[in-house]
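QA checklist item 7 of 12: single-chain prediction sanity check.
[x] sequence parsed
[x] length recorded as 324
[x] structure emitted
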Amino acid sequence: MTELSRLAGKSFLIVGRAGMDLYPDPPGARTEEATAMTVCLGGSSANIGVALVRQGCKVALVTRIADDAIGRYCLNELDRYGIERTHVTPVGGEARNSLAIVETRIEDHQSVIYRNGAADFEMTVANVEGVDYAPYSALITTGTVLAAEPSRTAAFRAFDLARAAGLPLIFDIDYRPYSWPSAAVAAEVYSRAGALCDVIVGNDVEFGFMAGDYDKGLDKARELVAGGARIAVYKMGEKGAITITQDGEFRTGIYRTEALKPTGAGDSFMGGFVAALADGRPVREAVLRGSASAAMVVARVGCAPAMPTTGELDAFLADRPDPV
């Protein structure tokens, strides 16, 4: 496995999707009762990219987008947020960008995700082989890219190329059952990916899924570190997180907030966590900054536009010195 000191370069290559999110207006409205929609950039990888840029890092995205108006919207948004998209390439035919309709409400929350014929699943080995990996500080990906071919093979090829260039591999498990042909395939592929990575982040359900038994999820996280990973973060929702490193493990709490929605927390956690590691902060502090980032985003409308800047995150933490 690779040492994490390279993260200090603060330049990240993210492999994964960009899409469009629609939020029913006014906030609190059910989708079927909405009178308008707020539109913004979406997709887990794009969201993580925005989170990192807003906390002082550089980001390039590798994915495919539909050769249509929605794809061009995503390109415009990537430009607006300052994400390099040289390797975001269009695909024609029936491929379409992912689309999510996400309610800004906690009670009886509804999210509807459209992923049929997803353009990002059309990413090929040629797409990832066209990247010069040497300038980057790490490769970040989410489990979504592994759910279908040819994206799955391309992602594993990107792992190989990044490793050959000396980049650490950072993996957000991000299990979405609706994207996979079967649970058995997903568990096998996730375990394969996790064994290759230096940093693995997921929740208790996701690690349990990788282990084949929910009750063995924490053991799976520990196993990955024992096998060579540098860090595994086992998130437990309101119960906080257990972080396992090669020096031991520790538990952290969460930051209470007035949540408007349950979505966006994972992407914002990853952005805040990785940005803090890149700043040279201790792992515990990095986890707490990730947790604070998550708390901020669930209290705001949208995901990408809700990602905090470093200054906003520092101000939030100054008012809340200790998690619960």
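[x] summary fact logged: The longest helix spans residues 283-298.
[ ] second reviewer sign-off
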